[in-house]
Amino acid sequence: MSDTSPDPPAPTAEEVLEGEKAPVVVFDGVSLAFDDRVILKSVSFALLLGHTKIILGASGAGKSTILRLILGLLKPDAGVIWVNGERVDGMSERELMRVRADIGMVFQEGALFDSLTVRENVGFKLFEETKMPLAEVNRRVEEVLGFVGLLEHIDKMPSALSGGQRRRVAIARAMTAKPRLLLYDEPTTGLDPITSTSIDAEIIKLRDLERVSSIVVTHQLRDAFYVATHEAVADNGAVRIEQADRSKCEEAEFLMLRDGEIVFEGNASQLRAERDPYLLTFLS
Amino acid sequence: MPGHIEDRVKAAVLEVQEYVRLCVTTARAATSRPFYRYDFVEQLDSIGVGSLTVVVLTGLFTGAVLALQSGISLDQFGAREEVGRLVGASMVKELGPVLTALMVTGRVGSGIAAELGSMLVTEQVAALRALGTDPVRKLVVPRVLAGLLMVPALTAISNGVGMIGAWFIAVAQLRVASSVYWNSVWYGLYMEDVWMGLLKPFFLAFVIVTIACHVGLRTSGGTQGVGRATTRAVVAGSVAVLAVDFFVTKLMIFVLY
Prior knowledge:
The structure holds two protein chains of two kinds.
Chain A: H1 13-18, E1 23-34, E2 37-48, E3 52-57, H2 63-71, E4 78-83, E5 86-87, H3 93-100, E6 103-106, H4 118-122, H5 124-129, H6 134-147, H7 163-175, E7 181-185, H8 193-209, E8 213-217, H9 221-229, E9 230-235, E10 238-243, H10 246-251, E11 253-258, E12 261-266, H11 268-273, H12 277-283
Parallel strand pairs in A: 3-8, 3-11, 6-7, 7-8
Antiparallel strand pairs in A: 1-2, 1-4, 4-5, 9-10, 11-12
Chain B: H1 3-30, H2 37-76, H3 83-121, H4 124-130, H5 135-172, H6 178-188, H7 191-217, H8 222-256
Helix pairs in contact in B: 1-5, 2-3, 2-5, 3-5, 3-6, 3-7, 3-8, 5-6, 5-7, 7-8
């Protein structure tokens, strides 16, 4: 006897956005060119809640442009971009401010405000754009600086910090307002391997302990695989970074760009198994 | 039209379009919330207090040299005692506003262009936007408002100091009695002159600061670009001061006299 019970109704957009696997960022056929130079060619992908998307590619492949499009710092020539359930590709600067409130961005060199102290940098958004009481802002600033292990540098100027410390302050600044989405633009470029690992650990901690969805743009394969294959475990107040199990590893998705086009999309093991000559050159 | 000329014309038109757009955005931002009052106070100090020494020295020596030069010319007509009238009118109507504006362009315009240019090339402006802060409200509006308030004040100080410099020369070198000099200054100035001297700096301040902000926020090419932006802000600002001074003077003569 055939099953005649009706199919369950399709979930509404609201249900999808509130679900466990809600798409946080969706790119649908996004293209961008500056004059004759094509930057992105019909790029489509989705980032799910609590997941990490690692965007790889050579310099000039269009990786950082994707982050700027998500933030609305650039507008696409074609295609649709959704961020946290809102379509941002046609929004005005004023409307984008609302969307940006839920996004944190770590710029390539940190982009810390050099005339402000570490405390003022980290608390910038709360000091300037909210009515949060000063004591509460300071408490939050100390909390996030403690999270990245830089509390003792709270009253220093950015120029007094090392390159790695500046990146960690930038991460702290991006997470102060508790965004649901964090964007990292080459967070480990130019850093030594030990400092890079400490930055990778912060990215993993934020993803696994704070459930923040993230997009990491990098061309450092070592860091990309480290973030994809490790997880943070809280243990009696201490945090350990350890090898992730298979299902956790599959949650981190890689996306490889070449001349503005996606040439690979999949997880770490699929990327390692690829035999495409370009990918092999990149991975070697 | 040859290609390179066409490109230059297009670039110039684009530059003007972007400048006008910045002015309109600034005007809108200045009349709505949020307003960053700490940045405004900081700019009052940076533009006003920071420029005081250079403006006082400029005014002092301009007044003194004006008295020296005009003393020789007035002697030919036996009118040496009228030196106060000449210095007063020249300082208040023209030299005070223009020289103060040129000094502020050199000191403040270059500083604004360099600061905003550096912020742009190090992605601090993009970071501001990413953090939900409008760069025009945060960076441009406080500077423009502080300029509008402080440049007229600096001009008034420069005028006063210039007349003191001229008084010193009139008394010490031209042997004009102090009371004769100040009487001459007082009777030589008309209310229209004072209005012109007070209103002109507002226009000049707006031009200096908005050009510097515009040039700074369109910097490209790394640290070399910051250097170029600084030079461009001073050159464009200085030329604009002289041009705007001419047109505002013409307008004010038409309206006031």
